[in-house]
């Protein structure tokens, strides 16, 4: 069973990721030193802008046209090394297609929504150390934490509740009745790790006969 991180609000810890076998290319000591007094991380929600969260606020379940559901996470970040390019570049193939190119030494992120030690939704946890992401003007917005199957409306779209195992229904109700922990972990190539956590609530939409948030 997956274990929930310790209940920390904001933490900055120096980690030697390179020595421990991490994949980050180390930036210069000077670049890291310039950020040393600016470490900050706050987790919020929002698809297009950062929306702050207060204890007990609801994170709304949203429908994905690609199948499955998610909740939106957004971050405010300070003192994190953003990577060798300094900002998102453009990788253009021909004249028609340009995609975002994130530096290999960009910061890495995981987001998780927990009920006690039960994982409800996550982003980046399938990759060891998280996935690279881009910070723009101190924010990372519109991160999709995908719901586990038992909490996703997509799983039970059009399914008669009478045919759903009672343990699954009870688990979904427990999510609605509990304070959940919304946790973000950011690590950068300077060896800094930041953790932010907020208590939130969530409505499991399929319990109420709806599949779109």
Q: How many strand elements? A: 13
End-to-end distance: 29 Å
Share of helix, binned: under 10%
Specify Rg, calculated over alpha carbons: 19 Å
Largest sheet: 11 strands, mixed
Please identify the structural class as seen in this structure: mainly beta
N-to-C series of helices and strands: EHEEEEEEEEEEHEE
Number of helices: 2
Number of structural units classed as domains: 1
Uncertain segments are 1-24, 85-89
Mean pLDDT: 81
Strand content: 35-45%
Question: Explain this structure to me?
Answer:
The chain is mostly beta strands and 213 residues long. It contains two helices and 13 strands, in the order E-H-E-E-E-E-E-E-E-E-E-E-H-E-E. The protein is elongated. The model is unreliable at 1-24 and 85-89 (pLDDT under 50).
SSE layout:
Elements: E1 10-14, H1 29-33, E2 40-44, E3 57-58, E4 61-63, E5 69-78, E6 89-93, E7 97-101, E8 108-115, E9 118-123, E10 131-132, E11 139-147, H2 166-177, E12 180-187, E13 192-201
Parallel strand pairs: 3-13
Antiparallel strand pairs: 1-13, 2-5, 4-5, 5-11, 6-7, 8-9, 8-10, 8-12, 9-11, 12-13
Question: Brief description of this entry?
Answer:
This protein is mainly beta. The protein contains two helices and 13 strands, in the order βαββββββββββαββ.
